[in-house]
Amino acid sequence: MPWFRDWARIEQEATALRWFEPVYMPGLLQTEGYARAILTGAGLFGADEIEQQVAARIDQQGVLTRDRPPLLSAVIDEHALRRRIGGAEVMREQAQHLVKLGSTLPRVRIQVVPLSAGAYAGLDGPFVIATSPSGEDVVYLDGQRHGQVIDRGDYVRQMVEVWESIRGEALSQQQSLDLMAEVAETWT
Fold first, then answer.
1. d(Cα 127, Cα 89) in Å, to the nearest integer?
2. In what order do the strands lie in the sheet with 147-150?
3. pLDDT for res 125
4. Phi, psi at residue 30, to the nearest 5°?
5. For the chain: N or C, fewer Cβ within 10 A?
C-alpha cells in the first residue's frame, strides 16, 4: 500500500492534524481491541494481516507522546461512540481511552458532534488535514480500500471550510469529554 506509506510519513512529520471521523474512532485514538474489532469485522483480512495492521496502528500512535507531538484536533460523530464495535467491553474501553487522552495529553483535543446536530457538512465522509513543518496543508481522504493525499490549494481551502463548519456543530472540549465519559458508562 504505497499510498498509505506516503500518508504515514506525512502524519509523522505533521505539526498539526485536524481529523474528522463520522463512523469510526480516528486511528491515532483507537485502542488495540477497537482496532482489532474493526479489522476483524471487515472480513477482508487474514489473522496475520490483522495483527500486523493492529501493531502498525498502535506504533503510529507514538506520534502523540513524542517530544514534540503534533497538535491533534479530532472531531468525531456521536454515532461513532454509540456504534457497537467488538462488543460492550471494547466500546467502554475505547470511550474511556478517549477521555484519558483528551484529559491528559495537552496537544490532543477531542470534540463530538452530537446526534442533535442533524444534517451537517461532515456526513460526506472522513478526512484529515495535516499541516507540514513548512506550514503547508494537505488533505487525506480515506476510502474503503485506498486513501488519497491531495495538496491542490483550492481543494485544501474547501476542506478547511468544511472543517470549520463541522467544528461549529461540535460540543466544546469539556462537554465532549463529559459525553464520552457518560457513553462509556452505558457500555455495560
1. 28
2. 108-113, 71-77, 16-21, 127-131, 137-142, 147-150
3. 92
4. -80, 145
5. C
Which three three-digit cell numbers place residue 88? 460492550
pLDDT tens-digit series, residues 157-174: 999 999 999 999 999 999
Among residues 128, 15, 140, 21, the alpha carbon closest in space to that of 85 is found at: 21
Q: What is the pLDDT of residues 61-89, one digit of tens each?
A: 999 999 999 999 999 999 999 999 999 99
Helices (H), the chain: 2-13, 32-42, 47-60, 78-82, 88-104, 153-169, 173-186
- CB atoms under 10 Å from CB of 165, counted, come to 12
Residue 21 — left, alpha, or beta (φ > 0 → left; ψ -120 to 50 → alpha)? beta
For the stretch 142-146, contacts whose Cβ atoms lie closer than 8 Å and that sit 24 or more positions apart, written own/partner, are: 146/1, 146/3
CB proximity list for 118: less than 8 A, separation 6 or greater = none
Question: How many alpha carbons lie under 13 Å from residue 50 in its C-beta half-sphere?
Answer: 16
74 three-state secondary structure: strand
d(CA 126, CA 108): 18
User: Distance between CA atoms of 49 and 186, rounded to whole angstroms?
Assistant: 32
Distance CA 29, CA 33 (A): 12
Q: What is the DSSP string of 19-50?
A: EEESSS--GGG--HHHHHHHHHHHT-S-HHHH
Distance CA 117, CA 170 (A): 8
